[in-house]
Design a protein that fits this description.
The chain is of the alpha/beta class. The chain has helices at 3-10, 37-40, 50-63, 79-90, 105-117, 133-136, 157-166, 179-182, 217-230, 236-245, 249-268, 287-293, 308-317, 359-373; strands at 72-76, 96-100, 121-125, 141-145, 170-174, 192-196, 210-214, 274-277, 300-304, 322-323, 333-336, 349-353. It has a 7-stranded mixed β-sheet with strand order 1-7-6-5-4-2-3, with helices on both faces. Strands 8-9-12-11-10 form a 5-stranded mixed β-sheet, covered by helices on one side.
Length: 375
């Protein structure tokens, strides 16, 4: 069986006459107890919930080869809650973390400002340096994000896993851009795979949710404890909505990636567009590694217009590309990334996330907007 079949089957409830094919969300803060409360599984809604269990089983199918039966998953109230649970589970005062310079700004802030103040040392490297064991020496945790956000840098997960394990470090991969259908960090050697499911996993731009996957029972117990104690849980409704969007994830990713590939090629040929960043372009620095480790190149690309004015005019002139932050939704969106001041990007840099529209319509619209931006 292939993943696309498995994920559809994984969202069905157990075959029992009269029961619905797909179970609905279970809203509960407390559950009936018996004399052996430990073994009922469900006691209080912050520790466990049947809708989480359904979702975690389905996500596990995507995270590991052959249906991921040996993979443990824990769902969280946001991608950042999942990130925080990994840091809380792995790090102790005095530990050091190695992470890429180009990581997601939220993770950079949490590591640098919060954990830095608690006595954790954070060393940042260029993505290309992450594969060198000498640079990882002394690290308790190695953090990788690939493709990175918003620079679209590609890191060879298998090579970093080898380097990290050689120095006794735990490797965590932020897989939010690719999703576990697009790339399976655990099968490439990572110890922890983290995903903000608010992006392409959900795909409908209406949820904030995230998850962690691991094959290591100790790490799974530690992240589970973090979730229960700190309380960064997902509501049953959100968990159920994510479960509901998983069977069509493969269709969405396929179409979004195809649209992104066509748009990247199209943009590369336009005057006034510099430096189109998309891992599916043969000219991209990380193309060969991306080809090897990713199943889909994903919905996100970056490109640079002459200056801030050109980028603002471009976004204002687009009719089919909606100005919005984040990525991975069914509708094509874009933003001038520099407006936030989070990332070291040129003033004219635009991050675009391709949706499910017809690619011809999108390219026509982008062409007229590029013309308007240079007038
Ligand atoms: C969005 C994102 C996060 C944070 O996830 P939330 O669901 O917004 O909390 C973390 N890492 C990456 C790479 C992201 O894109």
């Amino acid at each position: 069986m292939r993943d696309t079949t498995r994920i559809v089957r994984a969202t069905l409830s157990a075959a029992k006459a009269g029961e619905p094919l797909h179970s609905g969300p279970v809203f509960a803060s407390k559950f009936h107890l018996n004399e052996d409360a430990e073994n009922t599984g469900y006691t209080y809604g912050r520790s466990a919930n049947p809708t989480w269990t359904d979702l975690e089983r389905a996500v596990g199918v995507l995270e590991g080869r052959e249906g991921g039966a040996d993979v443990g998953v824990r769902v969280f109230g946001s991608g950042m809650a999942a990130v925080a649970a990994v840091l809380g589970a792995v790090l102790r005062v005095g530990d050091s973390v190695v992470a890429p310079k180009g990581m997601y700004f939220g993770v950079r802030h949490l590591l640098g400002e919060v954990y830095g103040a608690w006595g954790i040392t954070v060393r940042t490297l260029d993505a290309a340096e992450m594969v060198d064991p000498a640079k990882l020496q002394g690290a308790r945790l190695v953090w990788v994000e690939t493709p990175s956000n918003p620079h679209m840098e590609i890191t060879d997960i298998a090579m970093v896993a080898e380097a990290a394990h050689a120095v006794g470090a735990v490797l965590a991969v932020d897989n939010s851009s690719a999703t576990p259908l697009g790339q399976r960090p655990l099968d490439l050697g990572a110890d922890l795979s983290i995903c903000s499911d608010s992006k392409a996993m959900c795909g409908h731009s209406d949820l904030i949710i995230g998850h962690i996957a691991t094959r290591d029972a100790h790490l799974l117990a530690a992240v589970d404890r973090e979730r229960t104690i700190r309380g960064g849980i997902a509501g049953p409704m959100e968990a159920w909505l994510l479960l509901r969007s998983l069977p069509e994830l493969s269709l969405r990713l396929q179409r979004m990636s195809a649209n992104a590939g066509l748009m990247a090629q199209f943009l590369s040929k336009q005057d006034g567009v510099a430096e189109v960043l998309y891992p599916g372009l043969k000219t991209h620095l990380g193309y060969e590694v991306a080809e090897r480790q990713m199943r889909y190149f994903g919905p996100v690309l970056g490109f640079t217009l002459e200056n801030r004015r050109a980028a603002d005019r471009f976004l204002a002139a687009c009719r089919l590309v909606t100005e919005a932050t984040s990525f991975g939704g069914v509708a094509t969106t874009a933003e001038r990334r520099g407006r936030w001041g989070h990332d070291a990007v040129p003033e004219g840099f635009i991050r675009m996330s391709l949706g499910l529209e017809d690619s011809e319509d999108l390219m026509q619209d982008v062409l007229q907007a590029l013309r308007a931006s240079s007038e």
